Amino acid sequence: MVGRIRVPVSLPLLLVVLIGWAWSALSPISTQRASGQGTAAPVVVVPLAGAISPPTARFVTDALADAERRGASAVVIELDTPGGLLTSTDEIVRAILASEVPVVVWVAPDGARAASAGVFVTYAAHVAAMAPSTRIGSASPVSLAGEMDETMERKVTNDAVSQVRTLADLRGRDAAWAEASVREAANVTAAEAERLGVVDFLAPDLPSLLAGIDGRTVEVASGPVTIETSGAETVRAEPGWLDQVLALLADPTVAYILLSLGGLGLFLELSNPGVTFPGVFGGIALLLGLFGLGSLPVNWAGAALIGFGFLLFVLDLFVPSFGTLTIGGLVSFVLGSYLLLGNGAPPALAIAPAAIWTLALLLVAVFALLAVLAGRTVLRRPETGREGLVGAVGTVRRGLDPDGVVFVDGELWQATASDAGGDPAAMIPEGTAVAVAAVDGLRLLVRPATAAETAGAGVAILPPPDHAVRRPTATGPVSTAPADVT
To answer: What cellular-component terms does GO give this entry (predicted)?
Structure first.
């Protein structure tokens, strides 16, 4: 008979809670009710602030899919971006074009901008609006690998022009200005954008925006749709913690710092094997940094220079280069840091120079600390073996005339009194504090200890039993035996 296994009632409940937590953690977005209690379909507000990157594209596309499942009347993308990656921008544009729900791009709040990639996202929207004190433009493509040759620059620019003109024709917006934004990096204010037909209207706040789009008929992927926002509830989509972590890792400066700290941690682990923490931390940081850089167009020559710099640091541990390898590693590290994302990277996708020099100074500080610790280790008095006995303080157990017995370091030793030059000295009576001057085989050469040496010993020295004296053995100090020393 097979016995039953009784599962505590709390265990299934715990599993349900854990599964629910994991589901919510991996959920692309979390929503917050903002306003409105009407019976109309909700309006989903999606914030898109900062550089457009793979995590940003993931958040926006998932929010659009979630809005379709909710049966939302419209999706409002609240845009404020300095630009971003072309691949991520294309992903957002394709999601907008395929959306069954009308998508409204609103450049807001006041002071926001739709620069570079933001122009493409704005032109792709079914309805485009801007807050009064905002701007749009500068959509010229930039290569992160440095300067492009004339042919490549012409190919990339023409491709971007054809894309933005296609979006302009699809949505009935100004195609000539869109082309100028790409070819000449043209910029306009919100008022100029409305006058030129770049956007449909201006909206200083969300209620004004909803009132402006109410009743408009737009063409979505499935056909014409009339937007109804009167009395609609607004639901604000917020990225979950996983999206926030991915967005943080996709920041070039954060990814670079993690990559550098990971290399430093592994270097410290190799220089001090067994410490464990630097190795574990360095491995995790290195992998997270590589993940972050994986979503960015990295110049692998720069990454190779950074790796080569850390290789020189490790080699300096085993090769007596007198600091040459360390200096070479620092130079390689700094050069690789500047080349990692290219000199032509826009500010939104560039590594902060302050981070580069801070980490370079951190490496210098670490090497200086290691050099000081190594020097202290070399200069420190040995504490074990024959060398460790030199300078030790003990007491005379049998008067030295010049030979006798002393108690040093917890053991009895045969000893000879000597002066500063190592010659036999006058008799040293029993109970006198002595310091070991040298070790001659299994015999100690001692001299009277100074008051400072006696005080600095700081150890109470207990005499052995009267009946026992330690005799010298073949390999060490005297051994314990019945007292028969004469």
So the answer is: membrane
The DSSP code sequence of 195-262 is HHTSSSEE-SSHHHHHHHHTT-EEEETTEEEE---TTPPEEEEEE-HHHHHHHHHTSHHHHHHHHHHH
**Contact partners, residue 256, CB within 8 Å, separation at least 6:** 289, 293, 337, 340, 351, 355, 356
The superfamily CATH assigns to domain 388-482 is: Nucleic acid-binding proteins (2.40.50.140)
Task: Please state the φ and ψ torsions of residue 435, each to the nearest 5 degrees.
Answer: -120, 140
Helix (H, G, I), strand (E, B) or coil at 26: helix
Q: Mean pLDDT of all residues in the chain?
A: 81
Centroid of chain to Cα 396: 61
pLDDT given at position 85: 85
Domain ranges within the chain, ordered by starting residue:
27-145+156-240, 251-376, 388-482
Which class does domain 27-145+156-240 fall in? alpha beta
Q: pTM here?
A: 0.65
417 vs 403: CA distance, rounded Å: 6
In angstroms, the CA 269 to CA 275 distance is 6
pLDDT tens sequence across 290-340: 888 877 777 888 889 999 998 988 888 788 777 788 889 999 999 998 888
DSSP state of 380: S
Rg (CA), the chain: 38
Q: Tokens representing 476?
A: 């060490």
Query: What secondary structure does DSSP assign to 154-209, as a single string?
Result: HHHHHHHHHHHHHHHHHHT--HHHHHHHHHS--EEEHHHHHHHTSSSEE-SSHHHH
Q: How far apart are CA 181 and CA 192, in angstroms?
A: 13
* Count of other CB atoms within 10 angstroms of residue 310: 23
Q: How far is the CA of 455 from the CAs of 137, 178, 198, 432, 450, in angstroms?
A: 80, 87, 88, 13, 9
Q: How far is CA 380 from CA 95, 275, 376, in A?
A: 68, 22, 6
Cα–Cα distance measured from residue 12 to residue 89, given in angstroms and rounded to the nearest whole number: 44
Average pLDDT over residues 89-113: 95
User: Which amino acid belongs to residue 327?
Assistant: I
Q: Are strands 201-202 and 127-130 parallel, antiparallel or unpaired?
A: parallel
